[in-house]
UniProtKB/TrEMBL annotation, chain A:
A Pfam family assignment: Oxidored_q3
Organism taxonomic ancestry: Bacteria, Pseudomonadati, Verrucomicrobiota, Verrucomicrobiia, Verrucomicrobiales
Entry's localization field: Cell membrane
Family to which this protein belongs: Belongs to the complex I subunit 6 family.
Name of encoding gene: nuoJ
One GO MF term attached to the UniProt entry: quinone binding
Catalyzed reaction equations: a quinone + NADH + 5 H(+)(in) = a quinol + NAD(+) + 4 H(+)(out)
Methyltransferase recorded as keyword: no
UniProt protein name: NADH-quinone oxidoreductase subunit J
E.C. designation(s): 7.1.1.-
From TrEMBL, chain B:
Family under the similarity heading: Belongs to the complex I subunit 2 family.
Entry annotated with the keyword Secreted: no
The keyword Plastid appears for this protein: no
Quaternary structure note: NDH-1 is composed of 14 different subunits. Subunits NuoA, H, J, K, L, M, N constitute the membrane sector of the complex.
Protein name: NADH-quinone oxidoreductase subunit N
Membrane topology label: Multi-pass membrane protein
Compartments reported by the entry: Cell membrane; Endomembrane system; Membrane
Naturally occurring in which organism (per UniProt): Brevifollis gellanilyticus
Function description: NDH-1 shuttles electrons from NADH, via FMN and iron-sulfur (Fe-S) centers, to quinones in the respiratory chain. The immediate electron acceptor for the enzyme in this species is believed to be ubiquinone. Couples the redox reaction to proton translocation (for every two electrons transferred, four hydrogen ions are translocated across the cytoplasmic membrane), and thus conserves the redox energy in a proton gradient.
Keyword terms of this UniProt record: Cell membrane, Membrane, NAD, Quinone, Translocase, Transmembrane, Transmembrane helix, Transport, Ubiquinone
Length: 200, 494
């Protein structure tokens, strides 16, 4: 990807991210967050992580944002009055924490070894991986080795294969977790029948 | 039959109870409670028969993720016992709790603890961070629901919101830590992390950052300073059985994970060992002080027990920081397990008395304890024992646990931490005995004898006896927990 596009997407992600915090109107904030997510998704795509990029759009920019907007609409949140005094302590604390974290991340990523990964050698390695995958046995999905040999990274297939075979137990526990949270939401939000009947 | 079958049985029983409640809404509370308590008791009996001959193997699809060592077996047993006791407490508290729930329904209160128990049992055996994380979230999310369940009470709602927001934040921090650890060591299993950290070529700074976030995330769950601020409010607002469950079950599950994490991080030749130890010592000492000193000013017994729970977490973290202790012949994991085993009867007993008072229409202040010595001598004696044991009076269970922690601090000559621990213990004597004095003061608000059902009488007596027996004769329990040391010694000899 040309560097120009990279900087464009970074600008979109960060600029709209900043707008989420600055904007006074909650709807503006939420929509800025959605645009920021799209910028992030483009960055993922540019790193060949197509699956995560698509998930970012589907789950975050799609589902989560719709939920946000729904809540804003249902609760009828008015935009904050302009000129309200900003909480200086919160701003300072936020800047300090963000500063510490970025210094840490910068220090550490400066120390990590960088390997020279050009696209040509990567494709070669993919072909090798494809052969290894095939050698593993017939129960493994043949489409994965086919994709690998063609020099493409079948990231969604690999992810699915790992999730449903290696982490099968974890997946079921997560299913149980989701059920529990659904039950919790229902139990904590259902209306009192007695109250409801007395009101009507 | 394997241990895993029992865990799966518990989770499925929880689901079945939810289903029954959904499709047969007329079912009585008593039946639901009986099914849930009976199922857990059955699971406990089965567990003891299976765990006693240790050949029980795990099914293939969980084999890579779990290991049944003696620590895992111990914590699984502890989870089952506390779940059983909590379900019984729920049944006892049902009359007053149903006033605070929508429609007076309590069905989820009898099914969710079963799922929590399964999650805690999986956590106890987990050997890698993914399994730990998934099981931990199952437990935490269930607790979000349980804490806020009595939602007609404003305190419960406040507790639920606080626990949800801080819990979600801590989950984020935990995942961030796991990601850094994976980046630094290239492994998610405790063994792999320990092996990678022993290599000198592993880069130190990312590993340290990961360890710090990991410990902070787990620190939230076990109520360690400086992440302890949620504890008093949540303990006060949550229904009494749920508070009991939080303070024993959730804490035990958090500590088994913390034990394994710390063992992996400060293993032999670990490049970040000294730093992590220093961090744990500071955190532990701070937790003891921040738990003990504010407790002196508390009027509500539930808040008092919340602060007490913080300071106990501090002692446990100090024990973990020390590593193996020569004087007691126990590993740090063994000491923590012993401490938690003694912590269970005294905490449950204290909350049981609170529950009985609550059912009888009393509040949760120290003032409400006045005259208890006259109104119910049995409960007064039991509560005195529980509080004395929480303070660490000799010849009670709590004394032995604290003694082991102090011994291992002396062993490793961590004098600063020892001073903090001593100050904490001294403050503990003050605030627990203030409550004991209230029990035997004569001027009470009422002098009517308390109505006690047989189950509460038997329960209080059994728990009190356990406290005394563990305090006078701790050898058998200590012996079951020293096994891992011998095994480890043998392994290192080869």
């Amino acid at each position: 990807m040309p560097p120009l596009l990279f900087y464009l997407f970074v600008l979109i992600t960060l600029g709209f991210g900043l707008n989420v915090v600055i904007a006074r109107n909650p709807v503006t904030s939420a929509l800025s967050l959605a645009v920021s997510f799209v910028g992030l998704a483009s960055l993922f795509l540019s790193l060949d992580a197509y699956f995560i990029g698509v998930l970012q759009v589907l789950v975050y920019a799609g589902a989560v944002m719709v939920l946000f907007l729904f809540i804003i609409m249902l609760m009828d949140i008015k935009s904050e009055e302009a000129g309200g005094r900003a909480n200086m302590a919160a701003i300072i604390a936020g800047v300090v924490v963000a500063g510490i974290l970025s210094v840490q991340v910068a220090t550490i990523s400066g120390k990590l070894p960088f390997s020279d990964k050009s696209t040509e050698t990567a494709a070669l390695k993919l072909a090798e991986a494809g052969a290894q995958w095939e050698a593993k046995g017939k129960e493994n999905l043949p489409t994965i080795s086919r994709d690998l040999k063609a020099g493409e990274l079948p990231d969604a297939k690999l992810m699915g294969e790992t999730l449903f075979s290696k982490y099968a137990f974890h997946l079921q526990v997560v299913g149980l977790l989701l059920l529990v949270s659904t039950v919790g939401v229902v139990a904590l939000s259902k209306r009192d029948n007695k109250e409801a009947s007395s009101q009507s | 039959m394997s241990v895993f079958t029992i865990e799966a049985f518990l989770a499925i029983l929880g689901l079945v109870l939810l289903m029954i409640e959904a499709f047969a809404p007329d079912i009585s509370r008593r039946t639901l409670a009986a099914l849930s308590i009976g199922g857990t008791a059955l699971a406990l009996v089965l567990f003891f028969t299976v765990a006693s001959h240790e050949t029980s193997s795990l099914p293939a699809f969980v084999q890579p993720w779990m290991k049944l060592d003696s620590l895992a077996i111990f914590y699984k047993g502890l989870s089952l016992v506390i779940t059983l006791l909590v379900l019984w407490l729920m049944h006892e508290c049902a009359p007053y709790l149903s006033k605070y729930t929508v429609d007076g329904r309590l069905s989820e209160l009898f099914s969710l603890p079963l799922i929590v128990c399964a999650g805690m049992m999986w956590m106890a055996a987990a050997t890698d961070l993914v399994t730990v994380f998934v099981a931990l979230e199952l437990v935490t999310v269930s607790f979000y629901v349980l804490v806020a369940f009595a939602r007609k009470s404003n305190l419960a709602l406040e507790a639920g919101v606080k626990y949800l927001i801080l819990g979600a934040l801590s989950t984020g921090i935990l995942v961030f830590g796991i990601a850094w650890i994976y980046g630094a060591t290239g492994s998610l299993s405790f063994e792999g992390i320990s092996a990678a950290l022993a290599k000198p070529e592993t880069s130190k700074v990312p590993a340290l950052l990961g360890a710090a976030f990991l410990l902070a995330g787990l620190g939230f769950k076990v109520a360690a300073a400086p992440f302890q601020s949620w504890v008093p409010d949540v303990y006060q607002g949550a229904p009494i059985p749920v508070t009991t469950f939080l303070s024993v079950g959730s804490k035990a599950a958090g500590f088994v994970v913390l034990t394994r994490t710390v063992e992996a991080l400060i293993g032999e030749h670990s490049i970040i060992g000294p730093e992590v130890k220093a961090l744990l010592l500071v955190l532990g000492a701070l937790t003891v002080l921040l738990g003990s000193l504010p407790a002196i000013f508390q009027q509500s017994v539930k808040r008092l027990l919340g602060y007490s729970s913080i300071s106990h977490a501090g002692y446990l973290i100090l024990a973990l920081a020390c590593g193996d202790s020569i004087r007691t012949g126990m590993t740090s994991g063994g000491i923590v397990a012993f401490y938690l085993a003694t912590y269970l009867p005294m905490t449950v007993l204290a909350f049981l008395v609170l529950a009985v008072l609550r059912v009888n229409g009393q509040g949760e202040d120290i003032r409400d304890f006045r005259g208890l010595g006259k109104r119910s001598p049995l409960l007064a004696l039991a509560l005195t024992l529980a509080l004395a044991s929480l303070a660490g009076l000799p010849l009670t269970a709590g004394f032995m646990g604290k003694l082991f922690v102090f011994f291992s601090l002396v062993d490793h000559a961590y004098w600063g931490a020892l001073v903090c621990a001593t100050i904490g213990a001294a403050a503990g004597f003050y605030y627990y005995f203030r409550a004991i004095v209230a029990i035997y003061s004569t001027e009470g608000s009422s002098n009517e004898p308390l109505k006690l059902n047989i189950a509460s009488k038997v329960g209080a007596t059994v728990l009190a006896v356990v406290i005394v027996v563990l305090g006078v004769y701790p050898k058998p329990l200590q012996h079951t927990l020293t096994k891992p040391v011998e095994v480890a010694a043998k392994a290192s000899a080869h």
